[in-house]
Amino acid sequence: MIKFYLYPPAFGEPTASPFCMKTWCMLTAANLPFECIETPDPRKTPKQKLPVIEVDGTVIADSEIIRSYIENAADIDFDDGLSDHQRGIARAVIRMVEEHIYFAIVADRWGEDDNWPHVREVFFNAIPKLIRGVVTGFIRKQALRNLDGQGMGRYTPEERFERVRRDIIALRELIGDQDFLFGDHPTAADYSVAPMLRASIVTPIEKPLAKFIKSDPVLMAYVTRVTDRCYPQGVK
Ligand SMILES: N[C@@H](CCC(=O)N[C@@H](CS)C(=O)NCC(=O)O)C(=O)O
Question: Does the structural domain 2-74 have CATH classification 3.20.20.70?
Answer without folding.
Answer: no
